[in-house]
Amino acid sequence: MTDSYNPLMDINTSFCDYLVERTRSYQEHVVGGTLDYAFDADFAMRQKIGGISGWSRLYKAIVSNDIPGRFKRYFQSSDSASSMQYAKAYEAAKKCSERLQISLPVVLVRKAGDVPEIMSMAGEGIEPCIVMTSDIAENFSADELRYLVGCECGRLQNRHSAFNYAFTYPGISRGDVSAEAESGGKSNVRELNYVLNKWIISGDITADRAGIICLDNPADFPRIYASVRQKGVPDSFGNVNKNIDIDSILKHYETLHITPVRDLNMDGCSPDERRIAAAMEFIGCEILYIWRPDLSATSGHVGSKQSLEIRCDIIANSDSGHTA
Questions:
Q1: Of 128, 98, 90, whose CA–CA distance to 25 is shortest?
Q2: Do residues 126 and 71 touch, judged by C-beta distance below 8 A?
Q3: Are residues 218 and 288 in contact, defined by beta-carbon separation less than 8 angstroms?
Q4: pTM of the model as a whole
Q5: What is the DSSP letter of 24?
Q6: Quick one: pLDDT at residue 6?
């Protein structure tokens, strides 16, 4: 009598192997102190901010007092998302934390105001948290929530909270950039204001990459991005653009994405167009498919991280120091 083949014998039942897989950390994606998907200019600009006189004291005040205080106020005045309440937002957070390999953040939903808003915060003594208005939690699609929540998970993962919160301090305003501060010799506050505003653009690119990793179909990103803008979600400078023309932007990108680095030129393009173009470049990068092995690249060739960063430097005008 011959033994018949039992496919169940091929199943790995080792608890140790299961535990390693279940608790795997995104640390395997950390290269040189930064995450492999993060925009290099994001890290470089935050390093530059760290070198500005007075920043270390401000940073300590933000993460020790300001963010924990704001978290307490939001926690007292908001509802916690769960499988029973604001379930779509909660499920989006679960999926995003899984795909980015982070612990599930607290998700708070507060009463909607004039503008739909979403933000994240992390500080000493508090759980990493995402706060959104109820109009986003209740009315946005699953894809839109995965993108927005994924961006905020990326901001938490890349430690953006203190840099974003700095804009609550006197003398530091979003969109208020004076080129005089770039040359030095000016006040520390003015210099900090200038560099923080330059950083916002790079930070957005990192956040968009996290949002793309979290999407079921990353190729849907441009239309999802346009949809949340059309629904009134402001950009990181507080600007609302409900009239974004995504078809025109995508038509322009058809030419842009095959343009050699030496010929790239986005002079006159809107911030939304630059941001979409930078994100679309990431969809063609090998890093995305390392994070999402369940996906197949759209073509037989995907670009390298080095090529991605050089192109995104030009697209975003980030001044990070890459050269073609």
A1: 98
A2: yes
A3: yes
A4: 0.88
A5: -
A6: 61
